[in-house]
Amino acid sequence: MSSIQLSSRTTKRKSVATHKIFGNIAVLILLIVFTLLFIAPFAWLILTALKSPADLDAFPITWLPDHVHWNNFVQAVTLIDYWHFAWNSFALSTIQSVLITATSSLVGFGFARLRGWGKRPLFMLMLSTMMLPSIVGIIPTYILFSQFGLVDTYWPWVLWGLASSPFLSFLFRQFFASIPQELEEAAIVDGCGYGRIFWQIFLPLSKPVIATSMIFAFTGVWGDFLGPTLFLDSDNTTLAVAISHGYADLHGLTLINVLAAGCVLYVLPMLILFFFAQKYFVQGIVTTGLKG
């Protein structure tokens, strides 16, 4: 009887191990498929950037170019004032990412550590604004800024940065709430005020969430199209707007291959940024969910 039970257990273990192996293989296949789906558009963009107009007009579609045309990248930076518009995008992205990270960290610290009447309703009110699409307020914002003479200037991005972000404030609040209360209590016993506690204790510990906030804010402004289109003129606009209509031939037709090359150069800085900051980015996302 015991040998039969032992044989039955062994069979069950082998069955479980087999199911686990097949499950891992299925998950691996799904990950490969989804990875290819995510990579495919960018790969096609790069291939288009290396093609000639004849390759683009060919039918049936040619997947690989007959000859690699690196000159498309040269035209992408010469047909428009590429570096001027790139600097505009970099300046706006840097200004707003720094300001919005600083103000959101202060808001998050207040909701996580300070005590006061109505803190929870205010926090819920702030979270509720995240459900409103940003496009809802773009026209009223434009009217307001135009009345103050702030259109065609960079002041809207400065003011948006000073206003903080509900989402980033929520990230900081979640991270600060996960820091042990003993650190704050020890600092208070030593005579530290909340300003010093925030600056010397909480901020040095929050490098991951700071990096996450900077990446979110920087890429958000870098990739914004509607905001610069409405609030900036053609000379002070950003790279996203400039490359959307700057590559055309003498007949006004869009140069698809040059546009693709410009888009590759446009996306490349964000890929490099995420590559070097991905460690802190992942840590920031993970640690902000430790405590509610």
CATH topology title of the largest domain: MetI-like fold
| Strand percentage | under 5%
Rg, alpha carbons:
26 Å
What's the rounded overall pLDDT mean? 85
How many independent structural domains?
A: 2
Amino- and carboxy-terminal Cα gap: 54 Å
Structural class: mainly alpha
Unreliable sequence segments: none
CATH class of the largest domain: Mainly Alpha
SS field, number of helical segments: 14
- Write the element-wise H/E pattern from the N-terminal end onward: HHHHHHHHHHHHHH
Name the CATH homologous superfamily of the largest domain. Answer: MetI-like
Shape: flat
CATH second-level architecture of the largest domain: Orthogonal Bundle
Biggest sheet architecture = none
Descriptive notes:
The chain crosses the membrane at residues 21-47, 90-111, 123-145, 157-176, 197-222, 255-277. It is found in: Cell membrane. Residues 86-277 form the ABC transmembrane type-1 domain. This protein has 292 residues and is mostly helical. The protein folds into two domains: 2-49; 76-287, Orthogonal Bundle (MetI-like fold). The protein is 74% helix and 0% strand. It contains 14 helices and no strands. It has helices spanning 2-49, 53-57, 71-78, 82-113, 119-128, 138-147, 155-162, 166-177, 181-189, 194-205, 207-222, 226-231, 239-245, 256-287. The mean pLDDT is 85.
